[in-house]
Amino acid sequence: MYVRRTVSAFVVLVLMLAFTVQAQRLPTGVRPEHYALTLTPDLQTATFRGEETIDVMLDAPSKSITLNAAEIRFDEVKAYVLPVAAYTYGKLGSQPVPLSAMQSDKHPQIAKITLDAAKEQATFRFPEELPAGKVTLEIRYTGALNDKLRGFYLSKTKTRNYAVTQFEPTDARRAYPSFDEPALKATYDITLIVDSGDTAISNANIVSDKAGPVAGKHTLRFATTPKMSTYLVAFLVGDFKCSEGKSDGVPIRVCSTPDKVELTKFALESAKYVLHYYDAYFGIKYPMPKLDMVALPDFEAGAMENFGCITYRETDLLVDAKAGDVPEKKRVAEVVAHEMAHQWFGDMVTMQWWDNLWLNEGFATWMETKPVAEWHPEWKFPQDDAQSLDETLNLDAQKTTRTIRATADTPDEINEMFDGIAYGKAGAVIGMVESYLGKEVFRQGVHNYLQAHLYANATAEDFWNAQTVNSHLPVDKIMSSFVTQPGVPLLTFSERQTGNVPVMQSRFFLSSAVGNKKGQGWTVPVCLKTNGQPICRVLTPEDASLPLPMDVGAPVFYANAAGKGYYRTAYTRLQFSAILAKAETALTPPERIGLLGDSWALAASGRSSIGDYLDLVMELKQDPNAAVLDTVQKKIEVIDSDIATKQDRAELAAVLRRQFEPVYAALGTPAKKESFDRQQLRGILFQLLGDAEDPAVLSQAQQLTARVFDVNNKKDKTLDATLADAAVLVSANNGDHALYEKVLAVSKNSSDPGEQTDALRTLARFRDPALVKQTLDYVASGAVRNQDSWTVLVALLRDRETRDQTWTYIQKNWDKVHAQLTVSSGAEVVGAMGSFCTVRQRDEVAGFFADHKVDAAERTLAKAIDSINDCVQLRDSQELNLHQWLASQRR
Ligand code: BES
Ligand code: ZN
């Protein structure tokens, strides 16, 4: 009886929940076709006025219309009913019906407006029923230019204000009342009324620019856009200056505030290369009449793919074409390529709903290195891709991971979809499928898919069906098994038997506590390394072995050729030692990165000893590829910080010094015309040895740092930039007040956004408690831009030496700190709590954030707790192993 009642109460609760969630969606039956928007921002009073007409199609007669609106004040809403023939929209470039035609309906109905702030909706109720068919809504409203970096917001420099937009995922409704769902596409006519000295940039090109309507203003009208989703609309107002170029006949501009226009050249060159590359790759030409890319002084994300009008945070677009270093340029080129890929994947073809966000972000992630890798092969993007894949596999091996496609209905849930699964996992799964099908077959499938859904929407099935039809291979089975199941497959191999290699599939968890869950299986292409093209076999959940010819002509049995497979592998001892013996000669750098990743993961899950991992590290210590050593260095940091006891830490440092000093020495001093990779490698080894308190490196760091900050020798040309950066980071760890003040000055005064944020991050490296406090006070004071505050906090929380003090400070000063965070950066800070490694702190974190809710951070908090648990497990299971390994290294 009791159970019955609880069950039915539960059912009611679930139904109620389902209803509220469902109610966040707009009612069906009303489809927008065209928006005409006139906006008049006032940059002084931080307000704006909007005049809007929306042409909608009603499926059935109705007395009311509901759309999205948030923090908007409505002045008046009317509905006009017009003869259908008056409308001729739908084609790119077609002219909208002029306003006067609308006025021909002499009897507009005036709406009664009700607002539902919680649902971010407005309902217009009309005295008489509106007929089925076309209706035009005419809306006059006002709003505030907010300081929350979303919707229509104010972005400030020392000298002036800008009015700019960021709408994805659900903030278009804060700038214009709209049917704010990605499948409700429409065309747009945008008009902006701005100060005489200012300009405006929007999705389409300017078609007219006239003085008025009042003195001191001019009116800019933009061309009609193609059909597009609400979240891709953009309008930016201010005194932007641009550099201009052209690619495949498309005019491209890269714009910034006037003082920074010198830094736009590199991004322009990137965009020119990428546009031409994509035109050819997709077999579909870039569709907009122009492409603008604009750096904004305050910007929450890295960049945003608004159709024809991409916005960036300054550090992701602006870099000195001559003096800028390669990592900065790589970052800019990659972000540019990511956002430009979205012009096809996302803007022309959009996911039907946010549950399939991966169709946007996974594709852009997979695509972002492609054109740049071709442009600059020496930047070695395949190795970066291998590192990202490794990190993603670890993320996805946590208990709290999610499926690639996942339900998301409320704005908070939708915001939380922008995570390592939508980006990293989806990108990696796409990369695996491409590698299995072959580049050209895959490209053709991509083309077919896009072509079939231009200016419309698509689902996961649309994509994998297109690839299946084109390739005649089971892409649908492969992709659906990765998109609808959570987690990472572990392939455990046995010794080869005639004609096949036995293999067992299970779900891999990073933590030994979870154990090896059976029952999940994937359809996965497994590619074996050979002397030539890899041999791929599709392993299904039913298979227990891979059929293979006796002699595949392989140097070793390595079951993840090219390192593109989305799985972990476990070999037999015999197989593993054969691989180990040939790792440096027979495997490619991405394969070695994968091998290191698998080995780490097996140790973390308790399947092997951290000693085995460290043996592999020592085997690979002379690897000439920076990315391989970078992978190593990051894990050594974890060992040092989370596994080693205090005493073992000192011993570990001694081993590292002994092993890596000669490797570093062999690199010699920086030479002119050295490869980028070699420079990076030196920087990584320098940091590794600096962390290991190598006396020679520490004193070299001091000397180099002195030269960096030598006021009499500004821009010392003989300094190697990579080494100088590493030196400043090492010195800052042990730095005093005097050095701190110098770094602080750069973070405040530099006119180069990259240099400025680097300095800000360097501040977080100082470990003296008095300086840590100064940094925290600085962030809490509001003097750091909201877009950057979180990076400082996250860096302080990640460092073993500073995280406790930072955590105490955050708890004590939460209101001040929280006020410095935006929606997504609040979640970043919550995520960084995952760096703790004790049960006490885990409980503190859980308790604190239960009382101090952070928006859109629910899953992030669960993941952080998960990470702490995993870390505690890792220490428990490996502390002794590490101790023993260190003992074995004693001589
Ligand atoms: N569409 C996103 C921007 C975005 C992110 C909007 C989160 C709303 C919420 C954009 O394409 C993107 O992915 N930007 C990345 C940079 C990219 C190179 C990974 C970002 O902002 O970090
Ligand atoms: Zn993206």
Features:
891 residues; alpha+beta; Immunoglobulin-like; Zincin-like fold; eight-stranded mixed beta sheet; five-stranded mixed beta sheet; 29 helices; disordered N terminus; binds ligand BES; binds zinc ion
CATH homologous superfamily annotation of the domain at 32-52 and 63-309: tricorn interacting facor f3 domain
Q: What percent of the residues sit in helical stretches (DSSP H or I)?
A: 40-55%
Instruction: Give the uncertain stretches in residue-range form.
Output: 1-7, 84-94
* CA distance, first residue to last residue: 72 Å
Q: What percent strand?
A: 15-25%
Distinct ligand kinds: ligand BES, zinc ion
Give the neighbour order of strands across the main sheet.
5-4-8-2-1-11-14-13
Average residue pLDDT? 93
Q: Got a strand count?
A: 28
Radius of gyration: 29 Å
Number of helices, counting only DSSP H or I runs of 4 residues or more: 29
CATH class of the domain at 32-52 and 63-309: Mainly Beta
What global shape is seen? globular
What's the story with the biggest beta sheet? 8 strands, mixed
Structural class: alpha+beta
Structure write-up:
This protein is of the alpha+beta class. Among the domains are: 268 residues, Immunoglobulin-like; 92 residues, Immunoglobulin-like, CATH 2.60.40; 262 residues, Zincin-like fold (Alpha Horseshoe). Helices cover 44% and strands 20% of the residues. Helix 5 crosses helix 9. The longest helix has 32 residues. The site of zinc ion (ZN) has 4 residues, from helix 4 and helix 5.
A few lines on this structure:
With 891 residues, the chain is an alpha+beta fold. It is built from 29 helices and 28 strands.
